[in-house]
Amino acid sequence: MTHPTTDANNNVRKKYVKEKDVKENGKPKLRSKDPEGRYTPRIADPGQLEEIWDMVFNSVVLMMLDGLDQWNLEYPTKEMIKQDLDSGNLWALASNEKLTGMVVLNENADPEYDPIEWLMPEARYLCVHKLLIKPALRGNGFGALLLHFAIDHAIENGYDSVRLDGNSTIPWLLKMYRDAGFQHVGDVHFPMNKVPFKVFELVLKR
How far apart are CA 93 and CA 74, in angstroms? Predict the structure, then answer.
């Protein structure tokens, strides 16, 4: 059965996923602009906690049922999501006025990042956390849109680089990072996971 937002989702894919250039005329290129504002991520309101947590919890359950060593009942918790909302670091993406996904953007690097040899060790960096798309809407380019939004946000706020990590057993996720221009800089192990996570950095300034 075709999802009612298929046509709109295909437009998202055409608009954002095929664009891979990080710079244009020597300057970073913004890639998540939507003139009509249909898919523009916005800072989520704390009042959206229950709606966002419902999306997160359902995603966690599916990950566990699929045997995916990603999120679990220990991470992320509802309290963590509440903290992200209260701090103003959680951005929500809506499609047809319905919650589609989210991403957390801040300068809080996981301690596991400490041994990594970064491309720009002294950089002012932005970290990307908890990038999530509703399971029913995956594969339509929304994840790439949020990732490109994070890059644009970093550019517009004067950051030197963007840092993130991804599960080493999810090839499509790692490909999305590489397609966006990120470079693999090392691997880390998180206490709650059995598999290593690959760490990436995107340099915005030289």
Answer: 24
